[in-house]
Amino acid sequence: MVRTLLLLVAFVVCNGIVHAQTLQSLLTEYHKAIGGADKLIAMNTVIVRAKSQGGGGGQKRPMTFTIKLPDKARMDYSFQPGLTYIQAFDGTMGWTVQPWTGSLDPQPLNEDNAKDAKRIARMVHNDLVMNGKDGTKLDYKGKDEIEGSEVYKIEATRKDGTVVIYFLDVDSYLIVKTTTKYSESGVAVESEMFPSDYKTVSGLTLAYTFETKSNGEVTGANYVEVYDFTSKVDDAFFTMPAKKQ
Question: Are 103 and 123 in contact (CB under 8 A)?
Fold first, then answer.
């Protein structure tokens, strides 16, 4: 009995060590594939200019993501001329401007929606890039298949409870899919994103197309036009402005 327990403990310990070694090996390969995690983190501010399109096609509309480490983020979406939807997180609280309500005044976001705004901050500097520096726990979850292609799975559990599963191509080590799970108003939410069209610019390899899918059908897509790592962004840009008098 004692011998059996000792063997079981040894198996669990060895299995944990192998998983930890595999995780670090995958992270090393992923960091090399994108051009270096430290290099990307050093570029702590990025403006992502893109065009957004619904799943049914149609007009592509301007969308800009502004991100500043460690956790400031803002999205501006021009859904029609002169009207821009804003969702932002200033590092402490989230806020929004929703023109379709008939008001251009900024409004604070509730806790769940603020988490949604904060998640924008990991669009470029994702959990694999940050590698636990923000308290996120990473765990290797073995292999899987996506449309017949083999992938590695790494699960990231953030401090706010959000879980993101990253699927890495076994040959390129680039991310080909993410599954994000979180709770909103007590309801479990799950979304899938498929990054593709990777390009190497200034030594960094990043995705330029992000598709969301449901049951294999594309429900929306963002097409990146440029990653701007050179522009400076003041912290005030992420702060909720005062309401107009």
Answer: no
The separation between the first and the last C-alpha atoms of the chain, rounded to the nearest angstrom, is: 77
Rounded to 5°, angle at Cα 188 from 88 and 61:
40
Q: Report residue 33's pLDDT band, with 50, 70 and 90 as the boundaries.
A: very high
Sign (positive or negative) of CA dihedral 144, 176, 184, 118? positive
Q: Can you give the CATH number for the domain in which 127 is found?
A: 2.50.20.10
Instruction: Specify the 3-state DSSP secondary structure of 136.
Output: coil
Contact 74, 120 (CB under 8 A): yes
Using CA of residue 27, residue 69, residue 43, residue 50, what is the dihedral sign?
positive
CA dihedral sign of residues 97, 101, 103, 107: negative
pLDDT tens-place string over residues 52-94: 998 777 889 999 999 999 999 999 999 888 899 999 999 999 9
Whether 22 maps to a domain, the answer reads yes
Please check whether residue 230 lies inside any domain of the structure: yes
Q: Confirm whether 79 is domain-assigned.
A: yes
d(CA 239, CA 117): 13
Residues present in the chain in total: 245
Residue 115 CA to residue 72 CA, distance in Å, equals 12
CA 218 and chain centroid, separation: 18
- Position 245 in a domain: no
> Could you give the number of structural domains in the chain?
1
Question: What domain range includes position 194?
Answer: 2-238
